[in-house]
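Now for one protein, fold included:
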Amino acid sequence: MITFACMQRPLLSLHSILEALSLDAACLSLLEQTPEYQYFIHSDTPEAIYGAIRTIGGILNAQPQADQLVEDLEERINIISHKLKFIAEENKPKVAFFQDVFPLTAAENGYLANLIRIAGGIYQTRMIPHESSSDVLIIFNEKPISQLLTELPQVLSTWSQIPAVANNQIYIVHHPGYLRQPSALIADEAEILAEIFYPKYFVFGRDEDVWMKFEWQ
């Protein structure tokens, strides 16, 4: 049985934006008191996140830094989009996310869907293992890697019919700072997924600190 988690819309990480703008975390309380707060806290698309960063920059008298940050994020994401623009929809990998394997917990939210789209994948929701056609499985949680590596084979042994399992396309995102909520790290996260989906097109080196491929057979 699969539990579906993270169904609530994740909130924008204001801490990540303040850090990216080199502003003190104490500014968070000020942002929470502004009329714009309810607007930008629910941002989960690139365009909405860019708008939120600019709004926050304006509120905190950091407009030049905010504009530069948005320009940098847009440029990095546009590089990914440009490289993938000729890949046909039928050739894009179908991707499923799991927050845990014991109990089996699927992770679904709009932000993940947007990241997968940017990185050239097709987001699979409400995945039923014995009916799945997923090409890539991604697992992320807070468990020690040693525990997860022990649990995963027990689950995957019953999923041999899934393309991702049959083709050893299983990945663990072990860094707790990524893929949890919308943030100023959106370009990093898009790059992480792009190099997982298309290793021949992208090499960002994030397999050294953020993710690992799980070879189970």
